[in-house]
Design a protein that fits this description.
The protein is mostly loops. It has one helix spanning 75-87; strands spanning 37-38, 42-43, 101-106, 109-114. The protein contains one helix and four strands. The strands form two sheets. It has a two-stranded antiparallel ribbon. A two-stranded antiparallel sheet has the order 3-4. The protein is flat, with a radius of gyration of 16 Å.
């Protein structure tokens, strides 16, 4: 939801400081507001960003406030969650070793993405994250 921090622009020019501060997440107005989503799950909002561009949100994103069935994360959202569980919230892990392979879903496509966390240093501020998929 973009109105909590800095509203993310649709062109992605401020994606490291706006919205969820992850650049692969589409900019998203507050989808829980009236007249944003029509049944069964169609975006009908007319809100534009600061540049006048019409939002095209990811309606099934688990991290949005969409009333639609939420079943997907972007690759960067999934990677950040995996990092947090493997590095900070260790009590939430089911195994003793972090999994180097996870599946990120976007729509109906399932894309396995492998991250090399040993080569990734996490900066103090989340807006400084840069993400790389390992070969």
């Amino acid at each position: 939801m973009d109105n909590i921090i800095e509203p993310e622009l649709l062109d992605g020019s401020n994606c490291t400081i706006g919205g969820d501060m992850l650049c692969d997440t589409p900019a998203d107005p507050n989808l829980s507001l009236p007249d944003m989503v029509a049944p069964p799950c169609m975006y009908v909002g007319t809100i534009t960003d600061a540049n006048g561009d019409l939002y095209m949100p990811m309606l099934n994103n688990l991290m949005s406030y969409s009333p639609c069935t939420a079943d997907s994360l972007t690759t960067q959202q999934g990677a950040l969650m995996r990092f947090m569980v493997d590095s900070i919230f260790l009590h939430l892990r089911r195994t003793s070793a972090p999994s180097p392979l996870h599946h990120s879903t976007f729509g109906n496509a399932i894309m396995p993405v492998r991250y090399n966390w040993l080569q990734h240093q996490v900066p103090a501020r989340s807006s400084d994250h840069s993400w790389m998929a390992a070969p």
